[in-house]
Design brief:
Length: about 750
């Protein structure tokens, strides 16, 4: 299966870029594109809107009029025929509605597997661009198909029928699909309308239990399979005490060998079948574990790049340590699905069998059930709260140790090592106190379970013996009842570990919720911008007030003409960085307007804006090759583009610069700290990354200030040579660089 962005980049290196680049919003040309677009809008618009509505489904909040508007914008922004552009229109519409829509090239057989795992998909009808096939569900070997236009209600079809609709013998041939990942259903895992000021610590919404329910919802079909397997396994487990009962009764009436052989063969058959079911149960649970991990990774990979800047005080690298709770969650889900269900079903089925032996044993069951409920509900009160507090203390210790590792020079100073130890000791004490509070709750349940274990065994022995003496039970029934109670008691003895695991599972969901609750940027807005060339810019009375009430910018007004290079200067703390944040939509102005070309900046969809505007700030090198750090896997950027921009930034062998080293190539692997590049070369790399996307407005926040005077001025001159296609705002504290710009704007 091939994702749309995973095409081999070297193969593109010798191909010229397409005239209508998908990453730049261009006005439809008058050479026939406009009529094609009008035809496509008339023929595809209503059908495409209905397809998006069906993909969104009943559980997702959707505004049909918003779908139509977003689809119409996409069709204007990317003109062409439905056969060429249908997938682009649907993907951009989905992104505009905050749904994780993406394009894959895959065979129908591969997509069938995705559908079984909760993915929803749409593709063109085989050889017919006037038909969309929308697949919105799967049950075993049947799939829910909506053939548009006309069949929005949908019908269930077999895999064979669907394969025939998708080309019959060509069912293994790849075709283009738009899919909606099931993580779009996970939005309830995050707090709706989360207020970053309140913090996550209140756990107001949603609760760990509601997070867990929503997170396991896509796995419900497989969880039902596990439950059914466990139910049959539990019933087959009772074959042993029932066989012992029959054996005792048989021996009591004679010593024939034949019944013993028959009984042994029957027991072997039942236990063998139970073993096969246990294996299948473990296999299904293993698949669930894999999908849980993949879904968490997909969710966070989608969410983290979209986290709003005003959540920066919540979002730290240490916070990502919570990701490892997914491993805890995997193991506990597997444990509860295997051992936990076995314990519950053993207790439940055992009680049912005992109840058939005698009414007194039915009363014994009732008392035992009440005591188990008391142990779980009453004695376990407060366990989740104390488990969460314990986990928070644990992560505080991990965060401090991570801080020590990130500041090695600081903690080698005189007295700093003692400070590290003192803080670690205090945080460890906090953890031990929290652990003790949690263990007190567990201890109540452990003691209660042990007492219940002893009491149940003793009471059943006395009660069963009395009933045998009174002739109300046979000896075989007593032996079977004792074996069943032994199973029940052994299961009760394991309940304390199951309780602790369940509390840890809820705590893991709460910790992952710290990541899921990070607020993301709105993805709505205009996607059709009919301008090309360098952008014009206008600030009109723009002000910014920070969350703490302090003023970041006050009544800023100025304009930038297309192709102009403007220096933004001022003392430290005057708001240069804040101003560039506004232009890159990392912040929103508290007052005033920012107009880019003829559009209010806030009206543009953030990802569309960032195709027009590039921001260069600090050094952010990704682990990967030099070429990957430039193109970032953007399909419209070729190897030729990468080489050209590296040459302009004096990072190639043929560049006229003393800074060039011949010990790397485009395939050279770079570490996260930029090695083997020097700091100066890493800064040039950041500029190359921004320029290769051909932005119409380039924002530079202090990046050139750390370069030597001659290098900084030479790079600035290179940027000025591209003024026909790009305007530049340079935030700088160096007067020599500001003097080289066309104009200076002082804050």
């Amino acid at each position: 299966m091939i994702d749309e962005n995973s095409q081999h980049r070297t193969a593109q290196s010798d191909q010229p870029p397409t005239p209508a680049n998908e990453s730049t919003m261009t006005q439809p040309e008058s050479n026939g594109s406009a009529p094609q677009t009008a035809t496509a809008v008339d023929g595809f618009g209503e059908m495409g809107a209905e397809a998006i509505r069906l993909l969104c489904g009943e559980r997702r909040r959707v505004d049909v009029s918003a779908i139509r508007r977003s689809l119409a914008d996409a069709m204007l922004a990317w003109p062409g025929t439905a056969d060429e552009r249908w997938w682009k229109w649907l993907v951009e519409t989905g992104r505009g509605l905050s749904y994780a829509a993406r394009v894959i090239d895959a065979s129908p057989r591969e997509v069938f597997e995705l559908l079984r795992h909760g993915v929803e998909a749409v593709t063109l009808g085989d050889g017919d661009e006037s038909t969309l096939l929308v697949l919105t569900g799967a049950k075993r070997n049947k799939f829910r198909l909506c053939a548009l236009p006309g069949d929005a209600a949908g019908r269930w079809v077999s895999q064979r029928e669907l394969s025939a609709l998708l080309g019959g013998t060509k069912a293994t041939v790849e075709r283009r699909w738009v899919i909606l990942d099931p993580m779009s259903d996970d939005m309830p895992l995050a707090a709706d309308g989360h207020d970053s000021k309140t913090g996550h610590g209140e756990h107001a919404h949603p609760s760990p239990w509601s997070r867990l329910r929503e997170f396991l919802r896509p796995e419900r079909s497989d969880l039902w399979i596990v439950l059914i397997f466990a139910l049959f396994t539990g019933m087959l487990t009772l074959a042993t005490p029932i066989a012992v009962e029959a054996l005792v009764n048989t021996v009591a009436f004679g010593t024939l060998l034949q019944p013993l052989i028959v009984l042994s063969i029957i027991l072997l058959t039942f236990l063998g079948f139970a073993a096969a079911l246990k294996f299948l149960q473990r296999f299904v649970v293993e698949l669930i574990q894999r999908r849980l991990f993949a879904r968490v990774v997909a969710r966070l990979a989608w969410q983290l790049p979209r986290v709003r800047l005003d959540a920066a005080h919540q979002f730290t690298p240490e916070l990502l340590n919570r990701f490892f709770d997914v491993v805890t969650m995997q193991k506990i889900v597997a444990q509860l699905a295997l051992d936990g269900l076995r314990v519950v079903l053993t207790v439940g089925l055992g009680m049912i069998v005992l109840a058939f032996y005698h009414p007194w044993l039915l009363a014994f069951d009732a008392v035992l059930l009440v005591m188990l409920t008391f142990n779980m509900v009453v004695l376990g009160r407060g366990a989740v709260r104390t488990s969460i507090a314990e986990s928070a203390s644990k992560y505080a210790v991990a965060g401090w140790l991570e801080n020590i590792a990130l500041c090695p020079t600081t903690f080698k100073a005189v007295g700093a090592a003692e400070f590290a130890l003192t803080r670690a000791d205090r945080l460890t004490t906090d953890y031990l106190v929290a652990r003790e509070a949690h263990y007190r709750v567990l201890m109540r349940q452990i003691v209660s379970g042990l007492a219940l274990e002893a009491l149940a065994s003793a009471v059943l022995l006395g009660l069963g013996g009395y009933l045998v003496i009174q002739g109300q039970m046979t000896l075989g029934q007593l032996v079977a009842a004792e074996l069943i109670v032994t199973l029940i008691v052994a299961a009760i003895a394991k309940l304390d570990k199951q309780f602790e695991s369940f509390y840890d599972l809820l705590t893991s969901m709460d910790k992952l919720g710290h990541l899921f609750d990070l607020p993301v940027e709105a993805s709505s807005g205009l996607i059709h911008v009919g301008h090309s060339g360098a952008a014009s810019l206008s600030f009109r009375g723009v002000g910014v007030r920070y969350e703490d009430g302090s003023v970041g910018l006050s009544e800023v007004s100025f304009a930038v003409a297309p192709g102009e290079v403007v220096a933004i200067t001022g003392p430290a703390g005057c708001g240069k960085t804040t101003l560039l944040d506004l232009l890159f939509r990392l912040r929103e102005p508290s007052s005033g307007r920012i107009v880019l070309d003829d559009f209010d900046l806030g009206d543009l969809r953030p990802d569309v804006l960032r195709q027009i505007v590039s921001l260069v700030r600090g050094i952010e090198v990704l682990e990967g090759t030099l070429a990957e750090n430039v193109h970032l896997d953007r399909p419209e950027i070729t190897t030729t583009n990468v080489r050209d921009v590296l040459r302009r930034m004096e990072l190639t062998d043929d560049a006229q610069s003393d800074h060039v080293r011949r010990n790397w190539s485009l395939d050279t692997h770079l570490a996260h700290d930029g090695k083997p590049l020097s700091e100066s070369q890493a800064r040039r790399l950041m500029l190359a990354r921004a320029l290769v996307g051909k932005p119409r407005l380039l924002l530079i926040d202090g990046l050139l200030d750390a370069l030597p005077d001659e290098d900084g001025e030479r790079l600035l001159e290179e940027l000025k040579r591209t003024r026909a296609g790009c305007s530049v705002l340079l935030a700088t504290g160096r007067k020599s660089l500001a003097a080289k710009c066309d104009r200076i704007c002082e804050l």
